[in-house]
């Protein structure tokens, strides 16, 4: 009887863990698409209603996002989306450039045939999304490509570090492709990255990915400057 009780308790715990992780994933999407924009307070009642969950898994999800740096917890006030300065953004993208460059170098050496096949398929899907001018779909495939490269690098510490840092820039990376010329250039850069991976050219892969992130940094900062100038 005790073993059955233990099994039931474990199942409940696993279900709860899975639920708060699903809620966290949905909150990340809301942050990426700026449904929850910089400086916004996370209204627990509204989020519980829209996500169809109770406060317990929501609060567990918010604590998870706080640990990732995606929200800040202010005692007595609640959870807020951080407001990043241009300097914060520049520093974070500089770090991302180094991390993705290293991931590209290692992945070009170690990527498997099955991972290359998946990378080609994702590139085709992303290109098709660009032709449709479907930015949300494009970005979903873009995320999967960068994630696959970090996986193919075969370094779990690098992958975890990259994931944590990258998550803080998701909304900004998404918005930066609203300029069609820059969007087209980013797609071409991805095509070049794929060639480097297929050729197992680690030096070129490192250069391309590092440069890709530096250009993304510049695009993000330029867009912020234009937005400020337009609202002045």
Counting structural domains, the number is 2
Count of alpha and pi helical runs? 10
> Would you tell me the structural class of the helices and strands?
mainly alpha
Question: Helix content range of the residues, please?
Answer: over 70%
| Topology order in helix (H) and strand (E) letters | HHHEEHHHHHHH
Mean pLDDT across every amino acid position: 88
Looking at the overall shape, the CATH architecture of the largest domain is Up-down Bundle
Describe this structure in a few short sentences:
With 232 residues, the chain is mostly helical.
Structure, explained:
- This protein has about 230 residues and is mainly α.
- It has 2 domains: about 1-80, Orthogonal Bundle (Arc Repressor Mutant, subunit A); about 85-230, Up-down Bundle (Four Helix Bundle (Hemerythrin (Met), subunit A)), CATH 1.20.120.
- The protein has 10 helices and 2 strands, in the order αααββααααααα.
- The protein has helices spanning about 1-30, 45-50, 55-65, 85-110, 115-130, 135-150, 155-165, 170-175, 180-200, 200-230; strands at about 70-75, 80.
- It has a two-stranded antiparallel ribbon with strand order 1-2.
- A hairpin with a 3-residue loop joins strand 1 (about 70-75) and strand 2 (about 80).
- Helix 1 (about 1-30) packs across helix 3 and helix 4 (about 85-110) packs across helix 6.
- The longest helix has about 30 residues, at about 1-30.
- The model is unreliable at about 1-15 (pLDDT under 50).
């Amino acid at each position: 009887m005790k073993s059955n009780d233990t099994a039931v308790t474990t199942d409940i715990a696993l279900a709860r863990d899975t639920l708060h992780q699903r809620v966290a994933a949905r909150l990340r999407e809301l942050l990426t698409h700026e449904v929850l924009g910089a400086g916004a307070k996370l209204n627990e009642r509204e989020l519980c209603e829209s996500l169809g969950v109770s406060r317990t898994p929501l609060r567990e999800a918010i604590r998870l996002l706080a640990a990732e740096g995606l929200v800040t917890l202010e005692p007595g006030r609640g959870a807020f989306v951080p407001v990043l300065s241009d300097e914060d953004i520049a520093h974070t993208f500089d770090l991302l450039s180094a991390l993705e460059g290293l991931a590209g170098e290692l992945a070009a050496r170690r990527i498997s045939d099955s991972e290359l096949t998946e990378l080609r398929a994702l590139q085709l899907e992303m290109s098709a999304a660009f032709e449709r001018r479907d930015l949300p779909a494009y970005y979903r495939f873009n995320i999967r490509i960068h994630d696959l490269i970090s996986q193919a690098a075969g370094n779990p510490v690098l992958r975890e570090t990259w994931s944590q840092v990258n998550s803080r820039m998701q909304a900004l990376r998404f918005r930066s492709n609203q300029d069609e010329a820059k969007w087209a250039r980013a797609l071409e850069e991805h095509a070049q990255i794929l060639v480097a991976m297929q050729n197992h050219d680690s030096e070129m892969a490192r250069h391309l990915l590092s440069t890709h992130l530096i250009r993304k940094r510049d695009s993000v900062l330029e867009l912020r400057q234009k937005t400020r100038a337009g609202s002045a």
